[in-house]
Amino acid sequence: MLIEFSVGNYLSFKSKTTLSLIATSIKEHVDTNIISTERFDLLRGAVVYGANASGKSNLIKAMSTMRRLVLQSFEQSSADELDIVPFLLNTATEHSPSYFEAVFLIDGIRYRYGFEVDDHRIHSEWLFEAKKQSEKPLFLRENEGIEVMKGFPEGKDLEERTRDNALFLAVADQFNGRISKMIMKWFNNFIAISGLKHEGYKGVTFEMLENSQTRNTLLDFYKKLDLGFEDISISKKPFDPKELPGDMPETLVKQLVTDLEGAFRIDIKTIHRKYDSKDMVAGQVEFDMRSQESSGTNKLFNISGPVFDVLNDGGLLVVDELDANLHPILTLAITKLFNSREFNPKNAQLIFATHDTNLLNYGNYRRDQIYFVEKDKFGASGIYSLVEYKEEGKTIRKDRSFEKDYIEGRYGAIPFIGNLSKSDREWQGR
């Protein structure tokens, strides 16, 4: 379970910024939205608001980037760049490394793991463990040196095997280190997806629908959302070059034939009831998911696999633009799965960025689960939760209309729109 995530000097985040999932002492939705452990009361997730270009997507991308580096850095060559972009609007940061840190709980033990990295190498890396209140270092890395402590014997003699652009944790995992394997598994159960580019996630949904144990769960979810179909049919066919368009350039055809050799084409059909003239059921008809169902249905189908995969594993799901192409009620249905003891018995967590302000009223989110992202006059993003926000020195009360207040600009993190009537007159030459 995630406790905190911090990022600094990355994209629009100049200074170290922390999103915390530690529950505060407020009393809203204690029975549903909080995960109680022996050591912490943690939130089941957070919803992130902000204007366009405020940094919401950059916060999600920072989490995704940390996950990518942890899981993939070992596989890269020594010449590979790491695709890291620091805060470029300040001379003090544009050539400095970016900062990433996650604090999380595994089997009741608190770990704090992080690193500083630029596009070419790891500048520093650290791992701390806290079995009780105080934490102790397991390893510390600074520039060219790595210090391995007694509590991390799996890292001994691996210092010289670690490339400048590879994480030491990933190297220890390759040699079957016990602690490193647990942490790598935690990051593997930390899934980051885009609500805009979601085609690539439907493979997970396919696998769950092919599994008899998870198929019924997904179909039941679709039926409860009243998407209009009764069942789903999936068929796999070997890739056939003859199905490629006849006017496609020959060079591209040859490349696709090479790249897709041995691949399968997966067809998804939704099964609908067909009625007669007396509105009696007369049979069934198949619709092609991609061409005959709405973009919202396609998105819901594509991301439902990752959603239930995380719920089944008790992992962490991070989503940018969750509400894109979805009716507000569908967005609400997804978020309620996580803030529910019934549907989320393994304590999965959901962090997502959205513009859907309906959730501020109907999402049943606590004030410490609602985050805002806003840029200052120097172009740097910062985040704050609604429970941290003070109005005339006082905390926002739980009985306020959060949606109304937010749209009116009371909490900040909204677009500033100037005099549009003047722009309209200038555009029309009046």
Task: Explain briefly what this protein structure is.
With 430 residues, the chain is of the alpha+beta class. It has helices at 30-33, 56-72, 168-174, 178-188, 202-210, 212-224, 250-259, 289-292, 295-313, 328-338, 358-362, 402-407, 420-427; strands spanning 2-8, 17-20, 34-36, 41-43, 45-50, 98-106, 109-117, 122-130, 136-142, 145-148, 190-194, 231-238, 264-275, 281-288, 316-320, 349-353, 370-375, 381-385, 390-391, 394-395.
With helices defined by DSSP (H or I, 4 residues minimum), what is the helix count? 13
* Name of the level-1 CATH class of the largest domain: Alpha Beta
Helix-strand makeup class:
alpha+beta
Radius of gyration (Å)? 24 Å
CATH architecture of the largest domain: 3-Layer(aba) Sandwich
Q: What gap, in angstroms, lies between the N and C termini?
A: 59 Å
Strand content: 25-35%
Low-confidence stretches: none
Could you tell me the number of beta strands? Answer: 20
The CATH topology of the largest domain is what? Answer: Rossmann fold
Strand line-up across the major sheet: 2-1-6-7-8-9-10
Query: Biggest sheet, open or closed, and with what strands and sense?
Result: 7 strands, antiparallel
Instruction: Count up the domains.
Output: 2
Percent helix range: 25-40%
**General form:** globular
* Average pLDDT: 87
List keywords for this structure.
7-stranded antiparallel sheet; Rossmann fold; 6-stranded mixed sheet; ATP hydrolysis activity; ATP binding; alpha+beta; 430 residues
